[in-house]
Amino acid sequence: MRSEALKGHLDVLILAVVADRPRHGYAIIEDLKQRSGGSLDLPEGTVYPALHRLEAAGFLSSAWGTETGRRRRVYELTRRGRRELGVRRSEWRAFSRAVEAVLGSRMTQVPSVLATPDGGPRRA
Amino acid sequence: MRSEALKGHLDVLILAVVADRPRHGYAIIEDLKQRSGGSLDLPEGTVYPALHRLEAAGFLSSAWGTETGRRRRVYELTRRGRRELGVRRSEWRAFSRAVEAVLGSRMTQVPSVLATPDGGPRRA
DNA sequence: CGTTGACACCCAGCAACGCTAGGTATAGGA
DNA sequence: TCCTATACCTAGCGTTGCTGGGTGTCAACG
Q1: pLDDT tens digits, residue range A58-91?
Q2: Does B101 touch chain A (CB under 8 A)?
């Protein structure tokens, strides 16, 4: 998966995972990978700065937890974060629908049995 | 629609529109707007540089056409461009599916009648 | 006991991308 | 004549995710 694809959509993914239940950064990375069937395998250098950004924006709050001996910063959604998740969800749906509309539409309607996977001409 | 949402997905949109039939830049902008029901209303400063990028990458070829008295640069897909469109289409589907999987999944299954739009707790 | 690997966090600097805000120019209608 | 729509262009900016480095703990293996 092209890395630029994620741009602008990372926040909603993180908010959605944390909304489920408070989590620490490393667990968020693993959950994203697991839930997406392995296709969202994000580097730490992507996720940690994003978490700081979301906390600075007031969408997450964090606290250190050291139950396991290892230090962990555990994040949870703020009220504003929960509201933001709703907004971002709708924005994702709208964007996704718009892209599908463009990718799916044809000016010249083609019977599906004749259509090639990419909408291109069938050669020979 | 948050402008960062588009990042990384503009190319496939343009390729899809041009694949339909050769078009000039201004028409591409209008088609994107029309096909998306108005939600993809991209500024020229976004589309023209993208067209140059796609041509430099070998996915589009262009020629000046002056039929209407106004100069127009008309773009069409190259063979590589058509192949690339197929690749980008699949990448979009994969990405879209991954995001939906994350946004849609719940660790604790909630009966749909009780679920709030954003997956958050129902207050009061 | 040293090393390896998983866990868990952090950050500076980079590259890519879309947008802003400006510019040029033609055609047609008020 | 002026305005709007059409039609193109680009320098510079801000945001964002990633690379590549770093710190430290813990468990398992040889």
Answers
A1: 999 999 987 777 889 999 999 999 999 999 999 9
A2: yes
- How far is Cα A102 from Cα B35, in angstroms, rounded to an integer? 6
Q: Which residues of B touch A102 (CB under 8 A)?
A: 13, 16-17, 32, 35-36, 40
Burial classification of residue A75, based on how many CB atoms lie within 10 Å of its CB (0-12 exposed, 13-18 middle, 19 or more buried): buried
Per the structure block, which two tokens stand in for B17? 């529109």
pLDDT in tens, A84-115: 999 999 999 999 999 999 998 764 333 333 34
Q: Which residue of A has its CA nearest to B98?
A: A36
CA distances, B93 to each of A23, B22, B24 (Å) = 28, 24, 27
Beta-strand runs (E) in B25-122? 60-65, 72-77
Say what the pTM is.
Answer: 0.85
Matching residue, tokens 């979009």: B92
Q: Which residue is nearest to nucleotide C18 (CA to C1')?
A: B46
User: Computed from CA positions of residues A110, A115, A117, A121, in that sequence, does the dihedral angle turn out positive or negative?
Assistant: negative
B108–A contact, CB cutoff 8 A: yes
Contact B98, A39 (CB under 8 A): yes
- Separation of alpha carbons B55 and B6, rounded Å: 19
